[in-house]
Automatic annotation (TrEMBL):
Record protein name field: Amidohydrolase
Stored InterPro entries: Amidohydrolase, Bact_exopeptidase_dim_dom, Peptidase_M20, Peptidase_M20_dimer
Annotated NCBIfam families: amidohydrolases (TIGR01891)
Domain Peptidase M20 dimerisation: 225-320
Transmembrane segments annotated in the record for this chain: none
Region (Disordered): 1-21
Signal peptide residues on this chain, from the entry's feature table: none
Lineage: superkingdom: Bacteria
Coiled coil region boundaries: none
Amino acid sequence: MASTSNNRPTPASTPKPTAQPTAKQICACAKRVLSNLDATQAEREALYKEFHNHPELAFLEEWTSQRIFDDLTSAHIEVVRIGKTGLVARIKNGDGPCVCMRADIDGLPVKEASGKPYASTFTMTDPASGAVVPMTHACGHDFHIMSLLSALHAFAAHKDAWHGTFMGVFQPAEEVGQGALSLIREGLCTQFEKPDVYLGQHVMPTLPSGCVATKVGPFFSAAYSIRITLHGKGSHGSMPELGIDPVVLAASVIMRLQTIVSREMPSDERVVLTIGSVSAGSKANIIPDTAVLLLNTRTYNAQLEKRLFAAIERIVRAECDAAGCTQPPDIEYFDRGPLTSNDAQTTPRVQEAFAAYFGEHALLGEPQSVSEDFSYIPDEWGCPYTFWTLGGFADVAHAPANHSPFFTPDLQPTLNCGVSAVVVAASAWLAS
């Protein structure tokens, strides 16, 4: 029997679908919203240098968060705190779609060696170790901050060009893969309306400056770190027959793990298995009790990831059995980075907007082996997302990698291209 509940929505309460803006309308909107780009350039460059000179560790971005908050409130843009250092800004401009853009805000404990006149000399005390560490934005999060901050100012200044809601999420702690999850725990996805699309970008050395690129489907890899503890049996170095040497065992495990990608994974799939750390022993004449390996994996396919993990565990356990270990190995998975796989409906919409506005500087993206925590939030919200990359260096052939001490992208055109990409992508929904 059909329900007769009075809570059933009436036709009047059902939002009407909005027509998708044409390429001409998107470009017209973006050009109007970005019409002050030249006039604000000096001010934006100065603010960028402030952020560049105050990079902060994950979850400790207190100066950064306050500077963003002050900048937005001075422009009368609604902004609320979420968690300790997260921020959500929102501009409501009548009825229409809701577009949300994310920017990560944390820095890295790396000493900058870019040689730029505005290079970071900032230091922080790492609460985990108590050590004073040099800091820099060696992954370009200062550009991400400025791109979103500048887009919010631009949309606020030109409300006649668009309609709907534009939201900005300033997310902490991307570098440790926990920032997006922390905002979810703090209620981001329950306190704020679900957007029609969630957008994100990352400055990269793999594109020429002034270019943007995206693609449908897997774009940034899924990542996992794995800690493997091998349990041998300690002994004097002169009496190896009385022990089980975990150093030799670790060597066997390492060599055998190298065959997984080349011999067990499909040749047309991108899979990365890296052994980044090996630690065992403290003295030349002591066979230690244990050896510890730290692994990192990158995949673009959930089923293939399961196969990869199964192969790792099979090999590790088999090598331990072969060595005569009396205690099984400990295998611990941590620091997960989810797959970033761009939505098949929204991503072509962004690509078409980029092509119309940027012309030949809008490129088809290639899968990247780096990872992000970006997709946690749209997955929790249940909304589609599109992520793109932004070129950071004119000399791509000699561009340093993200996290390098030399990674400080060219100030221009990167700064202007970053805000332009945000405005153009959002205009694919918000253009009047």
